[in-house]
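User: What would this chain look like folded?
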Amino acid sequence: MRPDRARSVGESFKHVAVPYDSDEAFLGFVAPRVRAALNEGRRVLVVTCARKLTLLADELGRDAGRVDSRVSSTWYGHPHRTLAAYHEYTRGRRTLVVGEPVWNGRSEREIRQLIRYESVLNTALEPAAATMLCLYDLRQVPETVLDLEPVIHPLRLGADGEATSLRFVQPHELVLNGDRAPLPAPGDDAETVRFTARELKRLRQTVGDFARSAGMDRNLITSLVLSVSEIAANSVEHGAGYGTIAMWVQGRELICEIADPGGALDDPLPGYIPPEPESPRGYGLWISRQLCDHVELRAENGMLRVRLHMSLDA
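Assistant: Here's the prediction, encoded as structure tokens.
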């Protein structure tokens, strides 16, 4: 374990769901815990909507200037980048994080991504000397999300204090709708290319050319090419030594699927946990999850398929 990931003595990560139904309840749960954390010398980050940040600042008075504040709509725009940001924020520090994602207005796929991210936090930040309070406004959060809140949080905070969630499921055991469904077949107009170690440079050129011809924003092409290159290189080095890539456009999204006939999933949370700096493996999926809009994996009949989704528009 890296030194900066080591726990403080006697302290471990606490991931607590905080359902509430009024502004008064929001302040009642959050303000005293923020003050206590500041008095303990913790670094404090609060992420919620601008209105509630103002409410909290008014309640905290002078202490508000000691709190890092972010707006949910931007902080939670891409769950995997949010995960990386929390890794960085909590690294080597005693922290309190108060977070409230925006759930309304998201697609079913985006909600699944955000739920998965909330679950993975339990493992990803497990070494951190941090407490994370995840807010759920009962007036706004969809029922489907509220039903999973006790499944992805080991603790819940209520009027009587913290209690263990009896429905909690470990991140590597969490199965959401669609997780095990077969991936749809590539589009009829998919372009397929076979690659080996010798063709990786040509493969990057081919992906870039396809993205440009599809009308992808030029600022996104580099991210897509890098993601595909990382996954393909993993196939060459750690898989069968070769593979195929299929590329097609669906709506305003470009999809690249890298298929590795020698692949296997030996990581229960592939690409969700940042690799150790000295590790020779694990960067491909971690990088791809940061850069792409959506990543899907399936391992069936000895074939590992990694499907990368990237919007054509910036």
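The chain is about 35% helix and 25% strand. If you want, I can go into more detail on any region.
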